[in-house]
Every structure is written in structure tokens, then in C-alpha cells.
Amino acid sequence: MEDSLSLNNEASLPIKPSQRFRKGALVRVNRDLYQDSLESKASDQVPPSYIFEGPGEVLIIKGEYAQIRWRMPVPDVWLRLDQLEAWS
Q: Are 51 and 35 in contact (CB under 8 A)?
């Protein structure tokens, strides 16, 4: 009986979502996922090419967003994690 209680307790624990990226990861923006997103509408009409070419470095991850720093003199930006892909 104790075994069934411990299994029920384990099953009710929230599953922590796995994160694709960590602090310091090099990324670029996926053009298809970025187009027509809230983030693209809140930015310039023509996005800069460097965000699609990369690399940008992940500084902080909070929830479903990551703060990205580009290797040029431009401001850091917050983008959704699902819009990012690993830079290669």
C-alpha cells in the first residue's frame, strides 16, 4: 500500500520542462518562427540580418524567454526560446 501512495505522489509532481539552451549558448533566430510573431511586430519592419546569421549569446533565461547579446554594438534583446536555434 505504501508503494502505491509513493507512486501517486511522484505522478502528481510537476514535470520540469527541459531547456534547450543554457547561459552562454550561442544561438541565432529562426526566421520562419520569428516572422509574424509579437516580437517581430514590436520591432523594426525589416529585422537586421545579424539576428538570423548569429551568433548571439544567451545571457539569462526567464520562463520561456531568453536575453540575447549580439557580438556588435547593439542593445540586448529578449526573445522567446522557441524562436531560437543553436548556432553552428
A: no
Tell me the C-alpha distance between 61 and 58, whole Å: 7
Looking at residue 21, its pLDDT comes to 85
Query: Hunting for cell 501512495 — which residue is that?
Result: 5
Instruction: Measure Cα distances from 60 to 14, 31, 46, 50, 77 in Å.
Output: 23, 21, 26, 20, 11
In-domain check, residue 67: yes
Stated pTM of the model: 0.72
77: domain CATH number? 2.30.30
Nearest in space to 23 (alpha carbons), one of 58, 48, 52: 58
What's the number of domains the chain is made of?
A: 1
Other beta carbons less than 10 A from residue 88's beta carbon: 7
CA atoms of 11 and 62, how far apart (whole Å): 26
